[in-house]
Amino acid sequence: MTNPAIINAELLRSLHVPGSPLIVTNVWDAVTARIVSEVQGVKALATASHSISFAHGVPDGEGLTVDQALAAAKLVIDATSLPVSVDFEKGYSADTKGVEDNVARLIEVGAAGLNIEDSIGAAKAPQFDIKTAAARVAAARSAGTVSGVPITINARVDTLASPGGDWDEAIKRANAYMQAGADCIFMLGLSDEAKVERAIKEIDGLVSVIGTPGGVPLKRLADLGVARVSFGPGTMGLTLAHLKGAATELVALGDYPEELAFEF
């Protein structure tokens, strides 16, 4: 009998299709995972480290311990039968052996894929040098190979997310990460259609982007050949905005928001 973890990992990888992108509405706990997974058309889930960290009352940027991060991932994974890609920040280790060990533990709790970042601290800069960052991607791939689970690695490139980020360096990093075993490049800073189009042409692999209001429309991202779109902590912001609006209405003795009757 085939291992369910292998089935989910293979399914997640197959869903990254240029022109028909995987849309992952980011979740952060069991109930958000279950609610989103019940939506028709949703094929996989992804966590957002920012949202999980804030839900735990700690800052993003590995404010959680690795044990806490794994426990949070397991809550989401256990709440759905869909493949789950986990935002695993920087791998929760300063060295590549630690990254490999931690990713192996992530696979054990059922993750079908992960995001791994190339920045050193909580901010988008500075970044690990390219050789080191690529080695960390390779360590994550090694964990998948050893386990026999073909996890989907969505390697994040933070270069363009900081002022003065160099385009050529960003592309060099992206292609180095692909060669190290990444399946998809999560390129931050693709703020307009021209940048998205250029990145797709110059990166030797699949491209993942974050969707934001005022950014390139989803249909256009599909037309350009993006393979995956996520929304990071934006989905938590959306949820909290509705909650704040409801609280404002209630303390003003206003109408009951219809969403108070939402059954979950």
Overview of this protein structure:
With 264 residues, this protein is an alpha/beta fold. The chain folds into 2 domains: 4-232, Alpha-Beta Barrel (TIM Barrel), CATH 3.20.20; 236-264, no CATH class. 45% of the residues lie in helices and 12% in strands. It has 10 helices and 8 strands. It has an 8-stranded parallel β-sheet with strand order 1-8-7-6-5-4-3-2. The longest helix has 18 residues, at 130-147. The model has no long low-confidence stretch (mean pLDDT 96).
Please give the alpha-carbon distance between the first and last residues. 34 Å
Average per-residue pLDDT, rounded, comes to 96
Helix segment tally:
10
CATH C-level name of the largest domain: Alpha Beta
Q: What radius of gyration results from the CA coordinates?
A: 18 Å
Number of strands: 8
Poorly predicted segments: none
What is the name of the CATH superfamily of the largest domain? Phosphoenolpyruvate-binding domains
Report helical residue fraction.
40-55%
Question: Structural class, from helix and strand content?
Answer: alpha/beta
The best one-word shape is: globular
The name of the CATH topology of the largest domain is TIM Barrel
| Side-by-side strand order of the widest sheet | 1-8-7-6-5-4-3-2
